[in-house]
C-alpha cells in the first residue's frame, strides 16, 4: 500500500467511524426517554434529586456503580428495601446500624418529611431505570451482631455467592435433582424479586435489613408457642408461609424491622411468586433448624 492509498484508507476509516459514532449517539438519545422512564420524573423526583446533591450523598454512596464506594450502591435500594424501611432509616440511621458492630455509621442528616419523601421518590425512579444489569448485584456492607462471627461468610451470602458447603446448614447445601423443592427454594431465595438474600443472611448472628434466617425453624416453634403470638400459623411451615405472604402478621422484635405496626418486609411476594414457588421457598427456609 503506497502513501496515497494509506492516506485514503485512514480518511475513509475515520469517516466511517464518525458516521457510526454519530448514528449510535443519535440512537442512544432516541431511546433515553424510554430507558430512563422520563415520563415518571415528577416534581417530587426532582426534589429528591436536589436533596441527593444538597447533602452530597454521592460522597459515600454510588448510583449505577458510580460514586465513592464507601457505602452501598443505592441503584436498586428502593426495590431491595421498600419505602417504609427507607423512611424509618433516614429518620434515624442509628436504630439500624452501630458503628462498633458494623464498622461504619450513617450520619443523621435530620431530613424533614418532605425531603425524605422526595429522596425516596428519586431513588425509586433510579431503581426503575433500565441500566442493562449494572451493577451486576447489590453492593451491600454488612457486619456481625455478635463477636466472632465470620464476616466473610456474611458478605458472600449477601453478594449472592455460595459459601463452602461445610459452612452451610444442611438444607442450604447443594442437592442432586432439579425437582427437589429445597433446591428450587434456594434458587428462589437468591433470585426472587425483591431478592431475599439482599435483606436476610443465613449466617448465625448476622442481621442485615432483616433478621438472620439461621435457626429459623427453631425460632418459629418458639414464637408459635408464645402467648404474644397473634398469627394464625399452627406449625413451622405455616409460620414461614405467613411471614412471606402477610409479613405484618408477626413483627420480629426490634425497631429496625418494623414501624407503626407494619413490617418492613415487602408484601408483594404473593403477586410475584406462584403458590408453588412459595411452597418451595417455605421448604428451603424450614430446613434451617
UniProtKB/TrEMBL annotation:
Question: Has the keyword Heme been applied to this entry?
Answer: yes
Q: Where is the Cytochrome c domain?
A: 43-127, 180-289
Residue ranges, annotated region (Disordered): 157-179
One molecular function GO term is: metal ion binding
Pfam families tied to this protein: Cytochrom_C
Q: Which SUPFAM superfamilies match?
A: Cytochrome c (SSF46626)
**Keywords for this entry?**
Electron transport, Heme, Iron, Metal-binding, Transport
Q: Which protein, by its recorded name, is this?
A: Nitric oxide reductase, NorC subunit apoprotein
Which organism's genome codes for this protein?
Pseudomonas borbori
Amino acid at each position: 500500500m503506497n502513501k496515497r492509498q494509506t492516506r485514503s484508507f485512514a480518511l475513509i476509516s475515520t469517516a466511517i467511524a464518525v458516521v457510526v459514532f454519530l448514528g449510535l449517539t443519535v440512537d442512544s438519545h432516541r431511546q433515553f426517554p424510554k430507558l430512563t422512564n422520563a415520563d415518571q420524573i415528577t416534581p417530587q423526583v426532582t426534589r429528591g434529586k436536589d436533596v441527593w446533591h444538597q447533602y452530597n450523598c454521592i460522597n459515600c454512596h454510588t448510583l449505577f456503580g458510580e460514586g465513592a464506594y464507601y457505602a452501598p450502591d443505592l441503584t436498586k435500594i428502593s426495590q431491595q428495601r421498600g419505602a417504609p424501611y427507607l423512611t424509618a432509616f433516614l429518620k434515624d440511621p442509628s436504630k439500624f446500624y452501630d458503628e462498633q458492630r458494623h464498622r461504619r455509621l450513617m450520619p443523621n442528616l435530620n431530613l424533614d418529611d418532605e425531603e425524605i419523601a422526595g429522596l425516596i421518590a428519586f431513588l425509586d425512579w433510579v431503581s426503575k431505570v433500565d441500566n442493562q444489569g449494572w451493577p451486576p448485584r447489590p453492593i451491600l456492607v454488612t457486619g456481625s451482631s455478635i463477636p466472632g462471627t465470620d464476616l466473610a461468610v456474611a458478605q458472600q451470602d449477601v453478594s449472592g455467592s455460595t459459601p463452602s458447603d461445610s459452612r452451610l446448614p444442611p438444607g442450604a447445601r447443594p442437592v442432586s435433582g432439579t425437582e427437589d423443592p429445597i433446591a428450587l427454594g434456594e434458587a428462589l431465595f437468591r433470585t426472587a424479586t425483591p431478592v431475599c438474600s439482599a435483606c436476610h443472611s443465613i449466617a448465625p448472628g448476622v442481621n442485615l435489613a432483616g433478621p438472620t434466617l439461621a435457626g429459623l425453624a427453631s425460632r418459629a416453634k418458639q414464637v408459635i408457642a408464645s402467648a404474644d403470638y397473634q398469627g394464625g400459623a399452627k406449625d413451622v411451615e405455616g409460620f414461614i408461609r405467613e411471614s412471606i405472604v402477610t409479613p405484618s402478621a408477626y413483627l420480629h422484635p426490634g425497631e429496625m424491622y418494623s414501624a407503626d405496626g407494619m413490617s418492613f418486609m415487602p408484601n408483594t411476594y404473593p403477586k410475584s411468586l406462584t403458590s408453588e414457588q412459595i411452597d418451595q421457598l417455605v421448604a428451603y427456609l424450614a430446613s434451617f433448624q
